[in-house]
Structure to design on (531 residues):
């Protein structure tokens, strides 16, 4: 760090310091973008297709799952495949990827944390940028399927943008919360991974909520459903239900609140934990 | 940024947890607390708190070049990291004002998988350099590090000497008001040493306050105007270079003899 004017820790309350951390991170957004790009570049350096390897594997998964589940659910491929392609892309490279990668947000950069003074929020931004890039590479799969089947959601698809913005905010909060907790407790990432796997099955991703019949109202207890719907529904051509939007925003608000409180409490200990 | 730089510590203390074994596990921690709640014996697990710095007070003003000495584990590197804002504590007062740059780790912020040139660009971005300043940094480091064609190869392929030259070239590019330096900066072969010395001197001369840790007393005598002798996280002695170093040498000799 070239410019580092430290506040006096004896007079600055903890909350303010966490706030200052986030503000400084926002100021350094260009660096976050560079770091995020480099992460993706490095992960796929030397491979022919780059991040499109992931696209290819999504395509394989989609093909095999589409054929089997369309049969299991007694629906036509034309009905099922676009839905599945979109849902899988949104879940795997969207919500699930953010949850999983937020766990190692700080652990992955322990060397840098211990030798360079950079705001912790910067690492959260970096994880977000990295995931946004991978997400953009993968969204071509459902896009291709939509084009192949001649589907077009229309202007209502733009409503997915505020939904994606909500995901971005949740992703940052997740980095601050899970990133901090996972730095402290190293058995947490596998626990998060197991819970994410369960969420995959109990959330309407490969199946439609209507298939639950009268039990569909049980989905009230699964906030992942509402979070998914605020992005998926517009892309499938209809506005999300007001109830889903309300739950998604409410749950995100609580999540962000908890994340900021936890981060404010433990931020100064992170350098010792990683 | 025209304010005059300053470092002030008053009754500063820093302790940190050393986590290992079951303290790293959420499941075991929860289980232990549940046992504690139902009347079992509560153990603290494997959390050990180390008191790294205690009751440290001093003020450094512009023009001061300060050496930190002390035996291993005395708290030199911890103090440097606290001054750099990496470790934080709310015991006592720590006030650091001015543009600060810390040379703590030769590979700081460098990625082995990136090429030398990419690392230079990344470093420039960390310092918030614009395009022109980045180009200047690139030329400057290219000339200093003498990497030739290796500059466009991943750093992981470098010999350790090449990696140090690149890291050193980068780290010594900024011109801060406050310079913090850990002892690794004195390492390297003789040819490199001479050139590094020259480059470091430019940086030291330009800085208003320097804090340096080293085991090399000649280096201290050459560069420092004041020495802080740390022992078990406290300041054992604080004074002029020769006075403190002579006492330190006498103490070392007594320990050895």
């Amino acid at each position: 760090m070239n410019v580092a004017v430290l506040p006096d820790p004896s007079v600055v309350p903890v909350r303010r310091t966490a706030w200052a951390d986030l503000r400084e991170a926002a100021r350094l957004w260009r660096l976050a973008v560079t770091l995020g790009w480099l992460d993706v570049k490095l992960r796929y350096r030397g491979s022919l297709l780059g991040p499109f390897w992931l696209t290819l594997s999504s395509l394989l998964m989609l093909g095999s799952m589409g054929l089997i589940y369309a049969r299991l659910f007694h629906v036509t491929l034309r009905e099922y495949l676009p839905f599945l392609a979109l849902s899988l892309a949104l879940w795997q490279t969207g919500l699930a990827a953010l949850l999983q990668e937020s766990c190692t947000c700080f652990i992955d950069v322990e060397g840098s944390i211990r030798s360079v003074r950079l705001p912790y929020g910067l690492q959260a931004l970096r994880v977000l940028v990295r995931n946004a890039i991978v997400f953009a590479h993968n969204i071509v799969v459902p896009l291709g399927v939509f084009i192949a089947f001649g589907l077009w959601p229309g202007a209502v698809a733009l409503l997915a943008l505020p939904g994606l913005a909500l995901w971005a905010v949740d992703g940052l909060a997740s980095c601050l919360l899970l990133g901090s907790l996972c730095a402290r407790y190293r058995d947490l990432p596998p626990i998060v991974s197991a819970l994410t796997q369960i969420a995959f099955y109990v959330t309407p991703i490969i199946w439609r909520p209507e298939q639950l019949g009268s039990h569909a109202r049980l989905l009230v207890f699964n906030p992942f459903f509402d979070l998914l719907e605020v992005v998926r529904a517009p892309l499938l051509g209809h506005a999300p239900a007001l109830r889903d939007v309300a739950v998604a925003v409410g749950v995100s608000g609580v999540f962000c609140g908890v994340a900021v409180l936890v981060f404010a409490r433990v931020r100064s200990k992170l350098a010792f934990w990683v | 940024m025209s304010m005059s730089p300053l470092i002030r510590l008053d009754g500063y203390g820093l302790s940190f947890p050393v986590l290992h074994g079951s303290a790293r596990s959420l499941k075991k921690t929860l289980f232990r607390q549940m046992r504690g709640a139902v009347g079992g014996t509560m153990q603290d697990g494997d959390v050990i708190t180390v008191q790294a710095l205690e009751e440290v007070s001093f003020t450094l003003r512009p023009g001061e070049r300060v050496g930190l000495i002390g035996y291993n584990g005395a708290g030199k590197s911890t103090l440097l990291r606290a001054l750099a804002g990496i470790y934080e504590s709310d015991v006592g007062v720590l006030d650091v004002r001015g543009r600060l740059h810390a040379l703590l780790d030769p590979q700081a912020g460098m990625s082995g998988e990136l090429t030398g040139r990419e690392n230079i660009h990344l470093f420039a971005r960390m310092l918030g350099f614009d395009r022109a300043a980045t180009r200047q940094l690139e030329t400057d480091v290219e000339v200093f590090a003498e990497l030739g064609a290796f500059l466009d190869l991943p750093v992981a392929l470098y010999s350790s000497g090449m990696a140090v030259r690149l890291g050193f070239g980068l780290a010594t590019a900024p011109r801060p008001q406050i310079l913090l330096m850990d002892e690794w900066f004195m390492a390297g072969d003789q040819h490199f040493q001479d050139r590094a010395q020259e480059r470091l001197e430019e940086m030291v001369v330009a800085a208003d306050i320097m804090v340096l840790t080293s085991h090399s007393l000649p280096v201290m005598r050459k560069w420092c105007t004041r020495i802080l002798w740390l022992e078990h996280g406290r300041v054992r002695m604080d004074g002029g270079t020769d006075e403190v170093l002579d006492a330190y040498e006498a103490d070392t000799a007594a320990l050895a003899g």
